[in-house]
Design brief:
about 25% strand, binds adenosine-5'-monophosphate-propyl ester, about 625 residues, alpha/beta, 20 helices, 7-stranded mixed sheet, GMP Synthetase, Chain A, domain 3, 30 strands
């Protein structure tokens, strides 16, 4: 019996049990029956969380693009693979069939080769949500180059940091991008970033907004003329199962962003298998994930997972508010979208606009509604369920991470009964554990603690690029023989999981992970700033927003605080990107510190959330008197 498509709850439990009791047999069967291999594996799994090292399907040879494209040509050549919906409502949507995708990926792959890119080279992709983004990702995979997509909303400094960290020899970008009514000078940002990078030899530029940009002689090349000349045939590079497929950066609670490395075979198997089941995708469905390909959600559930299943995947260039807040629903009606996957922050923003903008459109095609990126609050859940899904489309609240590569805890629609704000049950093959602070696993139901995973799954990130020690310290050192997620979770009386949020210094703002340390570093570069501490506080649209407590070098009385706030936010925007700007900035005389000099963020978090009735034990503070001053002046 094939366990590839799970259709009812009993089957889920049965397959789940098998995946836990005989993981190797289970994954071997899935891999064998549903993918094409140039050579089968010698060993299904090798792992040691202490080293840490995880290897799936060792010895196997494959190319992921043959699984995502070539194998569909015989039966689905004329089926739409990518359905591109432009920013401008009046620009015609583009249907790229599997045949056309094959041709375009091959041409692009040949351009990469001609420009000297080889297997194992890193290519930075800083491209807006236009077809060239998905195509360049696949073109890299075709020739075995490791893609590192950087979200095209990041600043020049953030881009430069990522290019340098993985030593990229090429950057792919566009002359600019559309975002609602705005245009963004992407190439200008790349030029600024490259002033800080010596590794980049070539910049390929896609034309999107027809802007007048600078092209640096010898380095910058327009993409289209190169594509026009390129052959449409490109043999896929044969990759080892464990060859890196991509690097994707995610914020850490401290220091540099972490370049998570995903490898080829395990990632392919898991992203495809989760896609099929978590969305219950059927042959003629139109699937739409609103994320950007610059995030893991876009990698796994716009590009690789859907294409590996021969699906039609929508790529939307614009924003939910343009030309008005009905745009998402307009697209659902227009393309008869069956599965819709978005983030709670978008749901909350749309819910604020009232039901008229939803009811204007025919949403009867919808069968599955997905949520990802942060906890979904009860109100947003009900609005999504009632107003968008008309109580007919199950909501899958899917919990996972850049590091996990694929969905880890989620209801399977039409299989798992849903419960508002609960991610419900572990996906097939996933063995969660809830741990207390002393490292003991909390067995049974009705427990709450830190969420770990006990056993490797095929798409776990294998390392942090260039820093295996940090990989070990971050994920495998907090609890023995466990992958630590950094999240808190509870397990209810029936064994459903509810994610309670981060337990480290990562704050999720509008679904984007932001480490506090890099933001504080940016603020501290302002010449007037002595010290700063960032915490999150509840925000009705963003989920969490950022509150900055800042002490100034002189008392700052002679400075205009409003101007300072603007300058500080500008600095953050320049160093990291506009998503990391602070909602509130409070200038204080001091920050509460422990005797060892650590800032007591717990107290600042409570003050920022207006919850000062019980601040807990402040007796260990070096300077307890500052706490009252901070409360008095809080915003
Ligand atoms: O805290 C969890 C939260 O997002 C973090 C992972 O962020 P990132 O690597 O950017 O990946 C986001 C998309 C997969 C997690 O550690 N998170 C993600 N999904 C959920 C969630 N929190 C609660 N519920 C979710 N469904």
């Amino acid at each position: 019996m094939s366990n590839y498509h799970i259709k009812h709850l009993e089957e889920y439990y049965q397959v789940y049990r098998k995946s836990i009791q005989e993981p190797e047999n289970f994954w071997e069967e899935i891999a064998e029956e549903h993918f094409v291999w140039r050579k089968k594996w010698d060993k299904v799994l090798d792992w040691d969380f202490n080293k840490p090292e995880v290897k799936w399907f060792q010895g196997a040879k494959l190319n992921i693009t043959e699984n995502c494209i070539d194998r569909h040509l015989a039966t689905r050549g004329d089926k739409t693979a990518i359905l591109f919906e432009p920013n401008d409502l009046n620009e015609v949507a583009e249907h790229i069939t599997y045949n056309q995708l094959h041709k375009r990926v091959n041409q692009f792959a040949n351009v990469l080769k001609e420009q000297g890119v080889k297997k194992g080279d890193r290519v930075c992709i800083y491209v807006p949500m236009i077809p060239e983004l998905a195509i360049s990702v696949l073109a890299c995979a075709r020739i075995g180059a490791i893609h590192s997509v950087v979200f095209a909303g990041f600043s020049a400094t953030a881009l430069a940091t990522r290019i340098n960290d993985s030593d990229c020899k090429m950057v792919i970008t566009a002359d600019g991008s559309y975002r609602g009514s705005k245009t963004i000078d992407l190439k200008g940002i790349v030029d600024e970033a490259l002033e800080q990078c010596t590794c980049v030899e070539t910049v390929l530029v896609a034309k999107r907004i027809q802007s007048n940009i600078n092209m640096k002689e010898g380095r910058d090349k327009w993409l289209q003329p190169l594509l026009d000349k390129a052959s449409a045939a490109c043999e896929a590079e044969i990759m080892d199962a464990e060859d890196p497929l991509f690097i994707l950066y995610t914020s850490g609670s401290t220091g540099m962003p972490k370049g998570m490395v995903h490898t080829t075979a395990g990632y392919m198997v898991y992203s495809a298998y989760t896609f099929k089941n978590a969305f219950q995708y059927k042959e003629n469905d139109v699937y739409w994930c609103t994320a950007d390909i610059g995030w893991i959600t876009g990698h796994s559930y716009i590009v690789y997972g859907p294409l590996a299943n021969g699906a039609t995947t929508v790529m939307f260039e614009g924003v939910p508010s343009y030309p008005d807040y009905g745009r998402f629903w307009n697209i659902v009606e227009k393309h008869k979208v069956n599965q819709f996957y978005t983030a709670p922050t978008a749901i909350r923003a749309l819910a604020k606009q009232g039901v008229e903008l939803v009811d204007k459109y025919d949403l009867s095609s919808l069968k599955v509604l997905g949520s990802v990126g942060e906890p979904i609050n009860e109100e947003a859940w009900h609005w999504y369920n009632d107003v968008v899904g008309k109580k007919k489309s199950p909501i899958i609240d899917s919990w996972w991470q850049t590091e996990t590569g694929g969905i880890m805890i989620t209801p399977i629609p039409y299989v798992t009964p849903t419960k508002p704000t609960y991610a419900t049950l572990p996906f097939i093959g996933i063995q969660p554990a809830i741990m207390d602070e002393n490292g003991n696993e909390l067995e049974g139901n009705q427990v709450e603690g830190r969420l770990c995973i006990k056993f490797p799954w095929p798409s776990i990130a294998r390392t942090i690029w260039g820093n295996h020690q940090r990989y070990k310290d971050t994920y495998f050192s907090a609890f023995e023989n466990m992958y630590f997620t950094g999240d808190g979770s509870l397990r209810d009386e029936v064994g459903y999981y509810r994610i309670t949020g981060r337990v480290d210094d990562v704050i999720i703002v509008s679904g984007h992970n932001l480490g506090t340390a890099p933001i504080e570093d940016a603020i501290n570069e302002h010449q007037a700033v002595a010290e700063s501490a960032i915490v999150g506080f509840p925000h009705d649209i963003k989920g969490s927003a950022l509150y900055g407590y800042i002490t100034l070098k002189d008392s700052g009385e002679d400075r205009n605080h409003d101007n300072l706030r603007k300058e500080i936010n500008q600095l953050i925007s320049d160093k990291i990107g506009p998503i990391a700007k602070l909602n509130k900035i409070q200038f204080t005389e001091g920050l509460p510190k422990t005797r060892s000099g650590k800032i007591m963020r717990r107290i600042l978090r409570k003050i920022a959330s207006n919850d000062t009735s019980n601040l807990g034990d402040t007796s260990t503070l070096l300077n307890p008197e500052v706490v009252n001053d901070i409360i008095k002046e809080s915003l």
